[in-house]
Write a structure and sequence with these properties.
Blueprint (H helix, E strand, L loop, with lengths): L3 E4 L4 E4 L7 E6 L10 H19 L3 E8 L15 H9 L3 H18 L7 E4 L4 H13 L3 E4 L2 E4 L15 H6 L15 E5 L19 E2 L1 H13 L3 E7 L3 H16 L4 E7 L2 E3 L2 E2 L10 H6 L4 H9 L7 E3 L1 H23 L14 H11 L4 H13 L5 H15 L3 H27 L3 H13 L2 E6 L2 E6 L5
Helix pairs in contact: 1-13, 2-3, 4-6, 4-7, 6-7, 9-10, 10-14, 11-12, 11-13, 12-13, 14-15
Bound molecules: adenosine monophosphate and zinc ion.
Adenosine monophosphate binds next to helix 1 and strand 10.
């Protein structure tokens, strides 16, 4: 089945054709680890996970590379402001390295909870300084750089294609309509490849280079690492829409200027999550994290389910009302899948089956530029189908969930197992009571109570129910 993907480069839906048949090289801009990821950032990573899972469901072998930006990302994408990492380290009174390690771990904790498959390769910027220096050397040899005020700049006037991704107007670029702050730049859109003059006093992450001791520009990191891990041409590059005008525009300029040929075939961008009609931004302070949602009593997968409700190319408005609706729907879905699994009498869940009608329709929707919400409708379709047998339903659910990542069968199997264990313990308690071993019977009741299982003895035997242990 052919996958259609919307390519920002051409502003059209295009049939996806990988460079090497059956294989996909995919690069996703990773987090800048100076703080927790907010739920807007996480929407983008969930989308990238859906894209990767969809490609895999369609039979591709995906090499998914993601960077971790632990140096060089300034508070403004266009070289202004100070290094986000340094600023955060100063505010939190910790070293930049501590900040990076702590928030990298926090990021992967969040994505694990959201059932995002870890990238094939995660690369930290600070581990790839030699590759970045090599890339600047290549650009220098080809005449794309100049040094001014101690920094190395990329000269966009030398690169005819500059701004094509963002449809930047060449006249406007020449006129330099934007207010210029950095006097060293020949053109306001020129950008720094290597800083030796920090904009603040105590830059702690510095490396030797042919241009002096300093640190790389943020855009350079992604070009150097993606070229290193995916080669000089690869298939897909992802990120949020905010990266189109500056970050990705500059990545293209650096990479194509260095290699002299087209770099990435498909640029796929995720729209923003909106909160109170405003873009959520870590820099603006006061943002909602996955931890905030957990503190409010939501499970991370409730948020994943919420993200599945909107197409990746449309903005998604966050509200707790919508998150409640997602939670209720997911609970309902889970309960139904548990009920289906329970009919299998302790047998394991069936293997994924893509041949059933719902699973096939699901794959068609996914192939249509990742129409996940219509895919979710197929999932509900199979769950509610009055004709199909449980085993058949579960096999198609298993297939769809390889893309949706809601852990449906895993949770159902666990729940059915818990139910079986509870039943077994209740029987054991019954035997203890019959043998007048009340101490043992009480121990079993207490043990179950600790797991939130409440027993009610009545004339028809013992009934049990689960109570929520959340306060
Ligand atoms: P950052 O850590 O700031 O580099 O951002 C990480 C990723 O989140 C990037 O791909 C951004 O484009 C994306 N992003 C930032 N804000 C939002 C938002 N409100 N909604 C969705 N994605 C976002
Ligand atoms: Zn990037």
């Amino acid at each position: 089945m052919g996958l259609m993907l919307y390519n920002t480069l051409t502003r059209t839906n295009e049939p996806f054709e990988p460079i090497v048949p059956g294989k996909v090289g995919m690069y996703c801009c990773g987090p800048t680890v100076y703080n927790y990821a907010h739920i807007g950032n996480l929407r983008t990573y969930v989308f990238e996970d859906l894209l990767r899972r969809s490609l895999e469901a369609l039979g591709y072998d995906v090499r998914h590379v993601m960077n971790v930006t632990d140096v060089g990302h300034l508070t403004d994408d266009a070289d202004e402001g100070e290094d986000k990492m340094e600023k955060s380290a100063r505010e939190m009174k910790r070293s930049v390295w501590d900040i990076a390690a702590y928030f990298t771990e926090a990021f992967f904790d969040d994505t694990r909870k959201l059932n995002v498959i870890p990238p094939t390769i995660v690369c930290r910027a600070t581990d790839h300084i030699p590759q970045m220096i090599d890339l600047i050397k290549r650009l220098e040899q080809r005449g794309y750089t100049y040094v001014a005020g101690g920094n190395v700049y990329f000269d966009i006037s030398r690169f005819d294609e500059y701004g094509r991704l963002a449809l930047l107007d060449r006249q406007e670029l020449k006129a330099g309509a934007r207010i210029e702050v950095d006097r060293n730049k020949r053109n306001p859109h020129d950008f720094v490849l290597w800083f030796t003059r920090g904009k603040f006093e105590h830059q702690s992450m510095m490396w030797d280079s042919p241009w002096g001791r300093g640190y790389p520009g943020w855009h350079l990191e992604c070009s150097a690492m993606s070229l290193h891990y995916l080669g000089e041409q690869f298939d897909i590059h992802c990120g949020g829409v905010d990266h189109i005008p500056v970050h990705h525009t500059n990545e293209i300029a650096q990479s194509e200027a260095a290699t002299g040929r087209k770099w990435v075939n498909y640029w796929v961008h995720a729209e923003f999550l909106l909160m109170d009609s405003d873009k959520m931004s870590k820099s603006a302070g006061g943002f909602v994290t996955l931890g905030t949602l957990e503190d409010e009593g939501y499970e991370p997968l409730d948020y994943r389910y919420f993200c599945l409700g909107g197409h990746y190319r449309t903005q998604l408005q966050f509200s707790f009302e919508s998150l409640n609706a997602a939670r209720n729907a997911r609970r309902n879905l889970n309960d139904r899948v548990v009920a289906l699994q329970a009919t299998l009498g302790g047998q394991p869940a069936p293997a994924a089956d893509w041949d059933g009608p719902y699973a096939k329709a699901f794959l068609r929707h996914i192939s249509d530029d990742l129409n996940v919400s219509r895919g979710v409708a197929e999932l509900w379709g199979v769950v509610k189908d009055g004709e199909l047998e449980a085993r058949d339903k579960l096999a198609q659910i298993a297939a769809m969930d390889t893309v949706l990542g809601l852990r449906l069968l895993e949770q159902a199997m666990a729940a059915v197992q818990v139910d079986a264990d509870v039943e077994r313990l209740i029987e054991e308690r019954g035997r203890a009571r019959a043998g007048r071993d009340f101490a043992r019977a009480d121990r079993i009741r207490d043990m179950l109570g600790e797991q939130g299982i409440v027993l009610e003895d009545g004339p028809d035997g013992t009934k049990w129910k689960k109570v929520s242990r959340r306060v």
